[in-house]
Amino acid sequence: MNFRYSFQQIVDLKNNERTQAEWILSEAMGQLRNEETSLHGLFEQKDSLHNEMTHVSSGSVSISKMLLMQNYMNHVDQQIARKHLDVQQAQHVVLKKQEHLSERMMDEKVWSKAREKAYNQFQSFVAKKEQEALDEMATNRFRRLTY
């Protein structure tokens, strides 16, 4: 007698939903890492520009070149501010995806526990039937020996 869980398709569906939620979370985390890497690159670019401005200003330099460098520094600062917002947004997405994964995992666990409970009941039923069969055989044997 084989165990067949009538809601196995739901268990499989919940497992697939959890797996899909894991993939989506992984993608969101990858996007967050990309945003953080981009932000880090902007900070390095700003530091490099700052060092260049310091080096150039120690010698003779035209005002137009210094203004150009300062305008570029302002532009990099604006990019950094936007990138901070992008990083925050990516962090928010990651948190939402983590919550979604947590819900999917709980759903899957509920259905897996229900399947496990049904399997345990099935095993108990099979064991009871086997014991009844063994008892019947022992009773019949006893009857044949006593007559």
From TrEMBL:
Top-level lineage group: Bacteria
InterPro entries: Flag_assembly_chemotaxis_eff, Flagell_FliJ
Principal localisation: membrane
Keyword Cell membrane on entry: yes
Bilayer topology: Peripheral membrane protein
Subcellular location: Cell membrane
UniProt keywords, alphabetically: Bacterial flagellum biogenesis, Bacterial flagellum protein export, Cell membrane, Cell projection, Chemotaxis, Cilium, Flagellum, Membrane, Protein transport, Transport
Keyword Cell membrane part of the UniProt annotation: yes
Family, as annotated: Belongs to the FliJ family.
Protein name: Flagellar FliJ protein
Organism (species): Paenibacillus alginolyticus
